[in-house]
Amino acid sequence: MKKFFISALSIVTLLTSCMKQAENPLYNDFNTVHGTAPFTQFDDSMWMPAIDRGIELAKQEIDAITNQRSRPDFENTIVALERSGADLDRVLNLFYNLLEANSNATMMDIAMEASAKLSDYSTSIILNEALWQRVKQVYDDRELFNLDTEDKQLLQKTYDSFAHSGANLQGDDREQYRKLSAELSALTTAFGQNVLKELNTYEVYLTSNDLDGLPESTVTAAAEAAKEKGHDGEYLFTLDQPVYIAFLKYSSRRDLREKMYTLYNSRNTAGEFSNIENIKRISEIRLEIAKLLGSETYAQHSLRHTMAQTPEAVYDLLDRLREAYLPALHAEMKELTEFASQIEGKPVEICPWDYSYYSNKLKAAKYSFDEEALRPYFELDKVIDGVFGLATKLYGLQFKLNENIEVYHPDVKAYEVSDANGRYIGVLYTDFFPRASKRPGAWMTNFKEQYITETGENSRPHVSIVMNFTKPTADTPSLLTPYEVETFLHEFGHSLHGLLADTKYKSLSGTSVYRDFVELPSQFNENYLTEKEFLDGFARHYKTGEAIPAELVERLVASSQYGAAYACIRQLRFGYIDMAWHTITSPVDDAAAFEREATKEVKVFENEPESAVTSPQFNHIFSGGYAAGYYSYKWAEVLDADAFALFKEKGIFDKETADSFRLNILTRGGTENPAELYRRFRGQDPTIDALLIRDGIRKAPETKVAPLSKN
């Protein structure tokens, strides 16, 4: 009787476990169109159990690797480790992507709870001595195995991930690494949440007397936003990027421009959502980890696996560009100051909140160019056709809206992507408009990466591009500025890198490349914005259907170099801030003073408000994975200008050149050193020449320039 009772209880327990598993769709692969996520089946109560389960399953898979008696080899150790944690990866890809794009307070709490567990899990793998010894033995015996190029790259990446993440640490150092990693994970999560939370607190209500200079589309959107909040007759302006950018560019109210600028650039510096102490501690922890692992600075540690390789190479690029662009910046600012003084009828000192306003007017005066005049020709639906059509012309891709694929928000659309032969390539999600649940900015990410399964199937990716474009109103569709079209092109370039991936291993697929190489496909795409042949294919007036007039295209092209020096110096400033925080050798006391010292060589305005500090909002480096890596945007810009120069020479839609770019850059992911991939495509190392020429800084190559990379 007793034995039967225990058996029955076990059966009940088993059935209960099975029922719980059936109730949580995150526990299994999805039986849906292309295995896409059934978003409508998820609720917040499912995330933590699924994460806990994923961690436990992953640990069991690690134990299976370390407990086997077989001699370590590439398949039973390196490939087995690569394939471990698939259940956890599936859940985390979903959770963290939704946390960025469709978050809520509960998910933020879950993220904080999960960060400690995930940090501990990740550290437990790196510091698993038995696992490390197996990896090390395979690496030491690598010449005994018949490894192809991709296998060798996976082995090297696996070995390096252990060696440079504390696997060789012993005793107290090992425990210290574990504690620091857990604290760092919690702080970076808190940093990102503070940025989003504070951003959503800003609501500036204005009256009809405060709207001088603002475009009709901006005013209409502000009126609708106020009405939704119960403020009929008023106008609501937030700090969402489209709103903020339009306000500084067009508002003739200097006092209000100053107010908006100060609010935007003083975020997270004080109060409940201050990140000041977070950034100081994050940089300090990164330094401590670097020292534990044998480096003098975090940048020195982090840059080992990049094209740049060293902090000295990064500073060399930043300094060379600064020296090339500063004289042009001084000329630009002198011209702008004289122009502003002329139209105001009195001397004007350009303040940070004045730059966009007067710069836009000067641009219009010089080129008869007004971004608002171009908006009617950039209706979002038409831009989608044009941007997708670029991939069709270059790579033969086709995009078909599939409403049977579930999405996570009504704004989101899902497209099936196929090649010229109708072969399924992947799924692309598009998410274009701001909302309180979405962080600011624009990004591409994966819900699922491409890889080859154990049975030899090419498992195709699910890619998402997320932006914060101008929303449609009751009377007007979403009409984009050229800057927003450029942003779309940029993120779409990243998506192509993910969609066209064709590699064996998930960790080498798509955008899993060196950080200073990852921006090449995205920034390469931006070049098409000023190509008439591209614009003629889709830019139509949303009311009349009239093609964009040739004169407007000519003005857009003619004005493309306008403000290039200011834009470059602005990016260099971000790069210097990043490198400063990650080349410290002792903790920082005063974050604001530290930032000012780091950027003094690229200072544009003498009248910057004391409260304006970039670092506390700098998601890229304190929460977004770009620590000691923000320079990569400029590094990749050198690459993209050099790459597009070949297209300009051969034809911007040249099939042979596009095929080479696809095969050598877009499909190969991180399977080879990117310097080799680039040389194979271009036939040479890149220099800064093409960028200087494109930006109008240099008319023609005057002397042979040292290559960017000799890797």
Question: What does this protein look like?
Answer:
Helices cover 54% and strands 5% of the residues. By secondary structure, it is mainly α. Helix 2 (47-67) packs parallel to helix 5 (105-126) and helix 17 crosses helix 18. The longest helix has 34 residues, at 311-344. The termini are far apart.
Category by helix and strand content: mainly alpha
Which stretches are poorly predicted, pLDDT < 50 over at least 5 residues?
1-17
Average pLDDT, all residues: 93
How many helix segments? 28
Strand content is: 5-15%
Radius of gyration: 26 Å
Please give the order of strands in the largest beta sheet: 3-4-5-9-6
Largest sheet geometry: 5 strands, mixed
Give me a quick take on this structure.
By secondary structure, this protein is mainly α.
SSE topology sketch:
Blueprint: H1 2-23, H2 47-67, H3 74-83, H4 86-101, H5 105-126, H6 129-140, H7 149-163, H8 171-199, E1 204-206, H9 216-228, E2 235-237, H10 241-250, H11 254-265, H12 276-292, H13 298-302, H14 311-344, H15 355-367, H16 371-374, H17 380-395, E3 398-401, E4 413-418, E5 424-431, E6 443-448, E7 451-452, E8 458-459, E9 462-466, H18 482-499, H19 520-526, H20 532-535, H21 550-558, H22 564-581, H23 591-598, H24 619-622, H25 632-650, H26 655-666, H27 674-682, H28 689-694
Parallel strand pairs: 5-9
Antiparallel strand pairs: 1-2, 3-4, 4-5, 6-9, 7-8
